[in-house]
Structure formats: structure tokens, C-alpha cells
Amino acid sequence: MTIEAGETSEAKPKLFVHEGLVEQGVDGWRLIGSRCTDCGELRFPSARACPACFAPAERLARHALPQTGHVYTFSRVLRGSPPFGGSYVLAWVQLDGGPRVFCQLDCEFEAEVFGSPCELVVGALWETEDAVGVGYKFKVTQS
Questions:
Q1: Is 28 left (phi over 0), alpha (psi -120 to 50) or beta?
Q2: Considering the domain boundaries, does residue 45 fall inside one?
Q3: Overall pTM surpassing 0.85 (yes/no)
Q4: Which of 1, 96, 100, 142 is 20 to 30 A distant from 69 in Cα terms?
């Protein structure tokens, strides 16, 4: 697994916390959702049935989602609970041609990032004395 350089302590074990929701391909990391074969609805994460037309799970095809989008809305967390701790930013990201995704957002903490373009990255979400939690998040590419 390749994660962003300098994101984690090399001495600690890395726990991939989003197993099955993201995978690495030749063009980088991709979120894995589903597309309804009946109505075309895109979902992340995949659902047991299509929320738009109620098609059963057999009609939901695995679908790699876009790697880019823009910040739909965000919130600053001033004091996170364990194991997150510290301050960080959470956001809903509207994927380009895809659904909205809830995630941590890599950006300047005080920045106003509404509408800012961003891209999918995989990196440290939290760190304890024993391990580093690694998963998907989005990084603002300009503000």
C-alpha cells in the first residue's frame, strides 16, 4: 500500500480502516461504490438496494468512482475524540460526475474551502501510541 509521504510513523503498524471502500489501481487510488443497472444511480458506499429505484443488490454493479471533486460543505473539529484527537476538518465532497462523499479533508485549518477542488488521497487519519489508522480522505488542490 502506498500512502502519502511523511504522513505516518514508519515504526508503527498501519491499520487500513476503509477495507473494501478504496483500492489502488494503475491510475492511483479509487473509491469503490456501485451503479444501479436499472436507473444509473451512483452510490458510495455501495448499498443493499438502490435508494433511487429500489432495485435489489443483484442489480448494483461495482463501480470505481472519480478521484476528483469539490468541497460541497465542511466543518472544523476543534477537539476530536480518541483516537482522532487534535483538530481537523470534515467535509462532504461532491465527486465530479459522482455522488457526495463524507471524509476528512486535508487543507489549512482556517481556510474557507467551500467549492474548492480536491482529490482523493490515502493517508493517516489518526495515530495512537500503538498504531496509525490509514484510510481515504480528500486533499484541497487549490483554494
A1: left
A2: no
A3: yes
A4: 1
Into how many domains does the chain fold?
1
Q: How far apart are CA 126 and CA 128, in angstroms?
A: 7
Is 135 a domain residue?
yes
Task: At 17, give phi and psi (nearest 5°).
Answer: -90, -5
Nearest to 112 by CA among 139, 75, 58, 67: 75
Tell me the CATH number at 80: 2.40.50
Q: What is the DSSP string of 28-60?
A: EEEEEEEEETTT--EESS--SB-TTT--BGGGE
Residue 61 neighbours by CB distance under 10 Å: 11
The answer on pLDDT for 1 being more than 70 is: no
Q: Domain of 95?
A: 14-30+66-140
